[in-house]
Amino acid sequence: MSKNIDLSSTVAGIELKNPVLAASGTFGYGLLYEKFFDVSVLGGFVTKGLSLKPKAGNPAPRICETPSGMLNAIGLQNIGFDKFAGQKLPKLSKIGTSVIVNFFGDTIDEYVAMAERLDDTAGVHGLEMNISCPNVEKGGAAFGKDLKTTEKVVSACRGVTSKPLIVKLTPDVADIAEFARVCEANGADGISVINTVPGMAIDIRSRKPVLANITGGLSGPAIKPIAVRMVWRCYEAVDIPIFGIGGIACAEDIVEFMLAGASAVQIGTMNFVDPSICARLIDDLKILLKELGANEAYEAGGATEAGGANGAKMTNAGATGAADGYKGLIGAAHRT
Ligand SMILES: Cc1cc2nc3c(=O)[nH]c(=O)nc-3n(C[C@H](O)[C@H](O)[C@H](O)COP(=O)(O)O)c2cc1C
To answer: Helix, strand or coil for residue 67?
Structure first.
């Protein structure tokens, strides 16, 4: 019965079957996971970071396990726009869920060129601009840690695409809320919070850093409290919707992110632990929402304004659709 609950909504202009998406870099181009579960059940998925030209990434070793998480320094390895558009996208657009393309460049011009191309490409439902990768010298977090560059790159990309534009933020700044505000002021439709947290591991026997890149990005359950706080801060600062990311491993985590202010969430590292986790989380979420009484409006067939029942910040909920019940959870912890 609870499996039939409708969790659909429109977040940042992107239609989502439910608020559970797969995060960039942990879900390849989506196709690999088809052998584990029916990927069409996802609210959507975000593809591996894409650049104009193919990129080999950093030398190995580039991942290592850490307590409750992992470090990675992949360095945005990808197949480049042409191969993606010609070989991957035709298959992705047939899956039947929203496809969000994560993209980056070494320069503002490259970001703009990517945004232009993605704007012209059928089958891309939204753009997620990565200005937050800690593992590359140019672009990435080098852009997302500077307010002026963030302003320039967001407004330049906004100028060339009318598709939903989401900006993915780094936690490696003094006050993430300032960056959220700059994104909103320059036309972003939403923000993704957060990318990985810079970290490092040293092998005590070789006395050398474990990763060839020396440092990497920490992800997984270890970073969840950091991410929840950053979603909390951003929700206070802006009215555009927030995609909450960081260490999500169970339905309870999803609700926690919603209470902090996320309109939808992305699942990253836990896909490596259990490749079918996203499907399970969607089912578990429906059961949990019922248990929490958060689906009552839907089940009663009563339509309320998004988040209205709990006096939610309407615009920040950023979502319209049938599942009004869970939308009342979005940002609710700010009101208690
Ligand atoms: C191996 C790996 C590759 C990643 N690649 C990208 C990427 O290409 N673009 C991006 O914006 N984020 C990338 N991320 C960051 C994730 O999308 C996510 O923001 C982060 O891992 C935190 O979520 P999690 O704790 O659920 O993994 C990557 C993460 C991992 C672990």
So the answer is: coil
